[in-house]
C-alpha cells in the first residue's frame, strides 16, 4: 500500500503550481485597473477548479489551490495578519545571481489573527475538492520575525513580537481547523540560515548567536502548534529559497539536525534533497520519533528535465539507512511556483514529475 493512513502521503507535493497564462494576464490587468477584483476572482475561481480536477486526474492525494490567489508564498499571508502591512520596498531579496521583486511586509500595529482572507481561500478549495484531502499551505510563524520590518514603537523587543506572533498562529490554526482543515503545512526558509558557515557568519554579523537563533526557531514552531487538535496534521517544509528557479542559500542539515529531526513537534518534514546543496542523508539519524514522517524532496521543481526513476529509488534506499523506510515519503523538493513568477519549466513538466513521483512511490512502498 503506497497510501499512508493520513498525511503526509507516500507521494506528496509542496503546494504551489505554475500559474496558467490566463491567470497571469488577469492579474496584470487587475494591477493596471483594467478589470475589477470580481473579474479577477472569477478567473482565479475557474483556474483553481481546473487545477483541482487536474490534480485528481494525475492521482495527487493532497489537493491544493496551487496558491493561485497569491503573489508570494509568504508575504500575502503575513501581510493579511492584523498589525501587518504589505508594501513596496527599495530593494528585493538577494537570490543566486538574482534580486527578487521589491516587495515586503512591515509591522504597523499589534499582531493578531482576525478574519484573514485565506480562510475564504481554504473554504473554496475544500468545497470543490469533494472527498479528497485538502492541504493548505501558509508561511511558518518564523517567517514573520525573519522577514518583517520591525517597529520599535509598537514592539520594544523581539520577544514581545514573537509572543504575539505565536498567539496569532494559535488562533489561525484553530480557525482553519474549525473550517475543516485537517492538513496544514508551514513553509519556512529561516532554518536555512543555519545550514552553512557563510549563513551562520551572516547571523553573527547581525548580532545573532546561531544556537540561540535556532532555539528561537524551535520555540516558535512548537509553541504555535502546541494546541493543535489531535486529528489535524501539521507538517513543515524547510526551504533554501525558490524564485524563478534560483536559490537563496545552500548547506546540509548537520548544524541544526538534532533540533529539526529530534526537537520539533510537527507531524512531518518536507526536506530538500534534490542536489548537492542539500548535503547528505546522515543527519536523518537524529529522527527519534516513529510517528514522524520524512518527505524526501528528491525531484527538483526548478527545471523540467525528468529525473531517472532508478536513481531516485536508489536514493530513497540510501536515506532508509538512517531512518525507517516506513517513515519516508517522496515529493518535489519545493513548489513549482513559490511566487506568481513561477520556475523555469512548462506546465506539462510539473505533471510529468508528479506522475513520476507517484510511480516511484508505488514501486518502493508496494
What does this entry show, briefly?
The protein is of the alpha/beta class. The chain contains eleven helices and twelve strands. It is globular and about 55 Å long.
Question: Key features?
Answer:
366 residues; two-stranded parallel sheet; globular; alpha/beta; 12 strands; single chain; TIM Barrel; 11 helices
Question: What is the fold's blueprint, element by element?
Answer:
Elements: H1 21-31, H2 37-58, E1 62-63, H3 75-79, E2 82-88, E3 94-95, E4 98-99, E5 103-112, H4 117-129, E6 133-134, E7 136-139, H5 142-147, H6 158-178, E8 183-188, H7 197-205, H8 210-225, E9 233-238, H9 257-262, E10 268-272, E11 293-299, H10 309-319, E12 328-332, H11 347-364
Parallel strand pairs: 1-6, 7-8, 8-9, 9-10, 10-11, 11-12
Antiparallel strand pairs: 2-5, 3-4
Helix pairs in contact: 1-2, 2-4, 6-8
InterPro entries: Met_Synth_C/arc, UROD/MetE-like_sf
Protein name: 5-methyltetrahydropteroyltriglutamate--homocysteine S-methyltransferase
Pfam families: Meth_synt_2
Give an account of the 3D structure.
- With 366 residues, the protein is an alpha/beta fold.
- It has one domain (21-364): TIM Barrel (Alpha-Beta Barrel), CATH 3.20.20.
- Helices cover 38% and strands 16% of the residues.
- It contains 11 helices and 12 strands.
- A 6-stranded parallel beta sheet has the order 7-8-9-10-11-12. Strands 1-6 form a two-stranded parallel ribbon.
- Helix 9 (257-262) links the parallel strand 9 and strand 10 (268-272).
- It is globular.
